[in-house]
Amino acid sequence: LPGLHIFAIAFALEVSVGKTNTVTALNNSNVLLPCTFSTCIGFQDLVFTWYFNSTELVAAPAPLPMQIYHGKIKNKATEPTLVWHNPRVEFVGSTTKKDQNISIVLNNVEFSDAGKYTCHVKNPKERNAQHNATIFLTVVHTMVETDNTVTLIIVGVVGGLIGLLILFMLIKRVVLFIIKKTQDGKKECLVSSSGNDNTENGLAGSKAEQKAPPKA
Asked: Where does the record place the region Disordered (predicted)?
């Protein structure tokens, strides 16, 4: 039934190695190989295995040449129990916290370590449901620095344009302020001149009236 199919998908086991499945490491360095798993119904006696350059995802009782780490987890309240691991591989995850982390670190990386690393998980509580995710490791002699010249040029141009726009706005404000002050000054002069003319005219008129000869 469709409803049962949706229910089964919702409780499926999922394994993830993060947003990208490619990792670059420097020769003779240590590199983290991330892996987490999730399941809605929990897990019991879960088994996880890390494989190197292998498509045969079988957790065999004895370590196979392609296995580099093999562990078991009783339940969500316990940390993994080591079954077998390559001496250069170190478990750095934790399964008692929020994320079910089963990441490992490969120490003293060599050029021969480049290849495909698969994180495989089997959960008996989900009728032995299995899932896996893969990381591709590249080993280099020196790290190549990313050329950010184009990015810096674009940032510089955009920053220059923004600076010019701000300068233009400031100049515009100053000019408008000067024009406003000039206009206000002219208005004050006009008002003052008009007042003086009226006063002088009034005084002249008074004097003219005083000097007028008396009528006979």
From this structure: 188-216
φ, ψ of residue 49 to 5 degrees: the values are: -140, 135
Report yes or no on whether pTM surpasses 0.85: no
Among residues 87, 177, 74, 190, the alpha carbon closest in space to that of 123 is found at: 74
111 Cβ neighbours under 8 A, 6+ residues apart: 27, 139
pLDDT at 162: 86
Angstrom distance (rounded) from CA 174 to CA 182: 12
Q: How far is CA 12 from CA 3, 6, 125, 135, 194, in A?
A: 15, 10, 11, 21, 93
Q: What is the residue-averaged pLDDT of the chain?
A: 80
Catalogue all structural domains in the chain, each as residue range(s) with its CATH number: 14-140 (2.60.40.10)
